[in-house]
Amino acid sequence: MFKKIISTSLSAAFAASLIGSASAADISAAPAMRDMTTMEIVSDMGIGINLGNTFESSGDWIEQWGDGTPNAYETAWGSPTVTEDLIKGYAAEGFDSLRIPVAWSNMMSKDGSYTISDKYMARVKQVTDWALDADLYVIVNLHWDGGWLEKLPTDQDNVMKKYNAIWTQVSDEFKDYGDKLIFESQNEELGWNDVWNQWSGSTNGKAESFGYVNEVNQSFVDIVRNSGGNNAQRHLLISGYNTSIDLTCDPLFKMPADPANRCAVSVHYYTPSTFTILTEDADWGKSAYTWGSDASLQS
Fold first, then answer.
1. Which of 10, 201, 239, 278 lies 20 to 30 Å from 225 when distance is taken between CA atoms?
2. What is the CATH number of the domain that holds 92?
3. Neighbours of 38 (CB within 10 A)
4. Angle between helices 118-133 and 156-173 (to 10 degrees)
5. Is residue 101 one of the residues assigned to a domain?
């Protein structure tokens, strides 16, 4: 039986092969990129936990009522301030990877340049450093972030300008980090129901919506690869279509062209939902705190 872990939302289901790179090195000593395939990296990542309800918190009310510090956002959704001891505790409990979801719009300039606050960037970097020092893999992503990506079909130029500005800054800030740091292109937001409703039974707009997904992911890879340092060989997580495993396996979903051939695809799998989602009984299901038969544990 598996013990229920509610806070996790991490999956790297498929991995591409990779072209060999530089010599191996200890991440804590020198951040060289090891000669490991992306499949080997994914396998080595082991069990992951999500640092949820911290840096991905968002909302105008936080800016209005907070004190203007990164901590105001970090604690806005009820989580405590992240400490190094907390990160060490994850490692001590057997976790191998930490995913840090981030709403980069927090403390961002409003002049159209989409400049991320130095203080906010430094705080995310501090927590990343703590996790790497604890010998954890770290995934840094762009999360829901207030939902501005939903406007892409109607305001593509501005949305892509913001998306590209975010990843340009993040890539530059972390370009000299070793391969235990992984970037993830997006959370679950790549897919537009206003363009194609997957539940409608119609294919109208389907190719267009998948095209937007593929465009965003390709832009992500291009920015990271051209940003210098270790980013030329960094392992990347590519967000599937709404991170649905079924939709991501659709032929219309395309993995981005990557000169380094170091990409895995990220999907979220919530089956059975009574185990993976419910924390108490609901009208559509009874909460399950264990799951798995002997057969499923062996599969």
1. 10
2. 3.20.20.80
3. 24
4. 50
5. yes
For residue 190, which of 235, 271, 248, 269 has the smallest C-alpha distance? Answer: 248
Instruction: Kindly state whether residue 214 falls inside one of the protein's structural domains.
Output: yes
Has residue 43 been placed in a domain?
Answer: yes
Residues in the chain: 299
In whole numbers, what is the pLDDT of the chain averaged over residues?
A: 90
Q: What is the pLDDT of residues 245-298, one digit of tens each?
A: 999 999 999 999 999 999 999 999 888 899 999 999 999 999 999 888 887 776
Find out whether the peptide bond into 80 is cis, omega within 30 degrees of 0.
Answer: no
Q: Residues near 133 by Cβ (< 8 Å), separated by ≥ 6?
A: 28, 84
Structural domain containing residue 174: 12-268
CA distance 268 to 273: 12
What total number of domains does the chain contain?
1
- Tokens found for residue 171: 């890539």
Please state the rounded mean pLDDT for residues 57-76: 97
